[in-house]
Amino acid sequence: FDHKKVTVLFVLGGPGAGKGTQCSHLVDDFGFCHLSAGDLLRAEQHREGSEFGQLIQTCIKEGTIVPMEVTVKLLQNAMTDALKETRPGDGWADGRGRFLIDGFPRKMDQAIKFDEDVCQASMVLFFSTTEQVMLERLLDRGKTSGREDDNVESIKKRFTTYKETTMPVIQHYQSLGKVAEIDSSPSVEEVHQKAKAVVEKILA
Ligand code: UP5
Ligand code: MG
């Protein structure tokens, strides 16, 4: 994708940190196209004829990372579709497609591949809070979400993958000066106001 035409912000943070929740507010504020890698994988898992259904299901349940080729391709396709559809006022505010890529890249190989094949992200929004807060939020959501990974056993595995595999990605972008860390422990609205201010600066 042409850098002049698209702006990409990665949205990272532990499982249940509030990435999806905050992204939907930022969509309302700034007209981003919000693409959650996890949501795209779940859709692919249930797509009839997908050759990756079983693989994705296993990875999600075990909290491991789906091979990057699958996820990068899904994101690339979704971005292409979104750019075809975008109209003024629809993420094209100043003629540039704006994307929030949520829950990605969570492993270094994905970050490198996306950089090379798709485009470079301008910044990373990093929503951080404690494991205790994340655990409570996920167990609460698990009562109604139907997500196969919202149970204590899967959540613990997701935390381990986050610490061992995703934190190094965040540190990589920190070393490039590309990370804006936002404490996501307070209320949704408080976090939203902070995130909104950060994004305003980035887009200015
Ligand atoms: N909530 C949110 N904010 C709150 C606040 N400030 N105060 C109180 N409550 C708050 O929020 C979680 C819950 O908390 C909700 O009930 C919300 O109302 C409440 P949400 O916004 O959904 O948090 P989010 O960070 O998006 O949590 P999610 O569970 O989606 O994060 P994960 O990163 O674990 O999940 P994701 O869908 O990104 O990935 C799932 C799996 O897919 C991964 O484990 C992995 O196996 C696979 N995957 C890959 O293999 N590759 C990828 O690139 C991406 C995913
Ligand atoms: Mg999410």
From TrEMBL:
Protein name (record): Uridylate kinase
EC number: 2.7.4.14
Names of the cofactor(s): Mg(2+)
Main location: cytoplasm
Keywords (A to Z) from UniProt: ATP-binding, Cytoplasm, Kinase, Nucleotide-binding, Nucleus, Pyrimidine biosynthesis, Transferase
Residues annotated for ATP binding in this entry: G16, A17, G18, K19, G20, T21, R141, P186
Free-text note regarding domains: Consists of three domains, a large central CORE domain and two small peripheral domains, NMPbind and LID, which undergo movements during catalysis. The LID domain closes over the site of phosphoryl transfer upon ATP binding. Assembling and dissambling the active center during each catalytic cycle provides an effective means to prevent ATP hydrolysis.
EC category name: transferase
Native source organism of the sequence: Mycena albidolilacea
Catalytic activity: UMP + ATP = UDP + ADP
Localisation: Cytoplasm; Nucleus
Record's cofactor remark: Binds 1 Mg(2+) ion per monomer.
The protein's assembly and partners: Monomer.
PANTHER family noted in UniProt: NUCLEOTIDE KINASE
Pfam family, one: ADK
The keyword Cell membrane is assigned to this record: no
Region annotated NMPbind, chain positions: 36-66
One Gene Ontology term from the biological process aspect of the record: pyrimidine nucleotide biosynthetic process
One Gene Ontology term of the molecular function aspect: ATP binding
Function: Catalyzes the phosphorylation of pyrimidine nucleoside monophosphates at the expense of ATP. Plays an important role in de novo pyrimidine nucleotide biosynthesis. Has preference for UMP and dUMP as phosphate acceptors, but can also use CMP, dCMP and AMP.
UniProt family annotation: Belongs to the adenylate kinase family. UMP-CMP kinase subfamily.
Any GO CC annotation of this UniProt entry: nucleus
Region LID, annotated ranges: 140-150
